[in-house]
Amino acid sequence: DRYESFMRMVREWRHLKMLKRSGRGHVEISLNETPEGACAVLCPACPHPGKNMPDGWENAPKPKRWLNALFLAIDANFRLKRRHVSSEESDPSLGDGVAYMVKEKPYKEFLSMHAKETQDRSSCASHKAVNMADSKAFQGLAATGLGTIDCARHNMKMPCGCGDLQKGEKYANMDYLYFSSIRGTFVKRINTSYDIACQWWIKLWSRVSRLPTFLSFDPSGREFEFLVPKFHLSAHIAKCQISYSFNFTPGVGRTDGEGVERGWANINPVASSTKEMGPGNRRDTLDDFFGDWNWKKLVGLGAFFTRKIKEAIQMSEEHGAVLADMEDNIPEVELKAWTDEVQTWEDDHSKPNPFESKAKSPTLPQTRLKVAREDALELAKHPGLSPHSEITPGSLVSAALDLEEQQRRLRVDRVSLGQHAEDSQLAALQQRSNGLRLKLNHWFAAQSVYMPAATSLRAHSDNAAHSADRPEIADLFLPSNLPRPHAYPTRFYSIEWDLRIGQAHDALARLRSSLQYGEWLYKYKDKNLRGQEQNTRQQKIIDANGAKIRMHSRTYRAAYLALVSLGHDNETQENIQEGVWLPSAHLSFLNLVSDIRVQWCKSRARAHRWSEEVELLQEEMGRVLRFLEWHASWWEERVNEASTGANDAAEEGMIAYGLRQAALRRSIAARFSALWEPYLESSRTT
To answer: Which intervals of the chain are annotated as region Disordered (predicted)?
Structure first.
C-alpha cells in the first residue's frame, strides 16, 4: 500500500512548488527563516506602499485620500472544521505561517490566555456570531471552523489572515487574525467589512493592548471605517442599517463587502477531506488551495475590472442625471442646507443623521406589537375572563388582515389564470384555495366567540352561495364592515383602527418604492434597450412591477375604506387610484410617508458612490499594472543575485526560472493594459 507515502509526496510537492513560485529558492536565507506571509500571492489591486503606490501617495490631498484605502472583509466558515485526530508533534506544518494560515504556536498561546473570557451580548439584533460565540458544538473537534481576512473588493485571501476557530466566532480569534493580516502595512485608511461590525469594533481598541507585542498596532494617524456587508445589513436594527451602510459611507464606491462569502463556494468542497487531516497537513492544504484561488483571481482581473468599469461609468451617468433632475425641483436654499447637513454627518457620525426620516410613521409590525402588549395587560387585569382560551381580540383582528391580503392575492391570481390554464396551474391554485378555506374556518370559529351574529350574517350575505368553493370572496365582517345595529365589543374598533393605520403606512411605503422602480424601468427601457428580445424581457419585468403596484394600491384602498367606515376619515387621504404609475404625478400622496430630504440624500449617495466607483476602479487598475511591473523587476533582481558566472546547471535553472516569472508578469500586464487603455486614458484626461 503506497497511498500514505504518495499523499506525503503530494504534500511535499505542493510545499516545494509554493516556495519556488514565491522566489524562496532565489534568496540566500534558509527556508526556516522565511518571513511570515512571504509565500502568499498578494492582491495586486490593493495598496502596497513601495510596490504599487505612486510617489507621494501619503501626501495626497484630503479629498482624495480615500483612493488609497485598504478594504478588508472578515468572516468565518464553520464547514471547514477538523476532527480531533493526530497532533502538532506527529503532524507539523511544512510551512508554518509562511502563507495564509497564521503561525500556530503564538496563535494558540494567545487564545489559551483568553479562553475563559465571555463576550458581551449583542446590543443590535440577536446575532448568533456574537451571542453564540461560546456555545458552538465542539465535542470531538479540534477546530470548529476557520476565520479569514480577505481583501473586500477583490476577494483574495490576506497573508497570515486565516486561523482555526475553537468554538464560535470569538473576538479573540478575529482580533488576532485581523491585526495579523495588516501587520506592517503603512496604509493610512482601512475600511473593514464584518457582518457583526457594529458589535465587534465597540471595544476593539481596548482589546488591542492585550495582543502580542509583534501584533501591536498604533491607530493614531490612521482612519478606520467599520461597515456591515450589504446583504447582511437588513438583519440589523434600523440605526445600524444607516450608520454601517456602504451605500451611505463616502469613499467606498460600490463595495458590497460580500466578496468573502462568495469565496466559500470554492473552498467548501475541500472540507470533507481536510476535516480528517492532522493539524499540519490541513494548514498546508488550505494554504495551497488559497494560493490557487488568489492566483486565479489575479489572472482574471483583466476581465473583472473591464466588466466593473463599464457598469460603473454607465450607472454613474444615470444616477448623476437622476440627482440633477431632482435638484432642479428643490429650492436652492433648502438644497444648500441639506448638503451642509449631509457633509457634516459624513465628517462626524455623532451629528444628526440626514438619512433618518424625521417623520416617524407607525408600521404594521410595530402596531401588532403594541396591540399584543395591550392584550397582555387586559389578560393580566382580568384573569380567567377571556371569552376564547387561545385567541385574544388583538390576534383575531391581526389575523383577519392577513387573511384579507391572501383573499386579494387569490382573487387576482384566479382572474389572471385565464380560460386555458394548464392542469398544474389549476392544481396549485386549488391547493391555495383549500389552504385559505381551512384558515378561514378556524378564524370564523374564533370570531363567533366574540361576535356570534357574524355567523348568521355570513350565511345570509350575497356571497354565501359562492364562498364555499371560492373562499377569496367570503365576508369576514370585521368591525369596519359590520352592518348596524350589530356591534363588536368596544375595544375591537380601536384595535382595527390602529392596525389599519399601520397597514396603510406600510402599503404606501411599498407603493412608493415600486413606483420609483417602475419609473426607472421605463427610463432604462427607452434609453438602453433595442430589439424585440430585450424589450420583451424588460416588459415582463415592468408588468411584474405593475402587478405589485396594483396590489399595494388595493391594500391601501382597503385600509382607507376601513378607516372611513370606522369614522376617522379626517385623519387620512384618498389620493390613490388603480392606475397610479409615476411618482411625479402623485407627490401629495407620497408625502404621507416620504421625506423628500431623505430621498434626496439617498439619491445623492447613490450618485456619489457610483462616481467614486469609477475613480476607485481606475486607481485599482493602475495599481495592478504598477504591481506587476514591480514584481517583474523583483524577479529580475533575484536573477542578478543568482548570476555568479559559474554557469552550472543549478544556476542556469534559477536564472531561466526567474526570467520566466518576470516575463509572465509583464505578459499579464500587457494583456490587462490593452483591455483597460480606454478607461485609463479617460482618467488621465479628466
So the answer is: 344-363
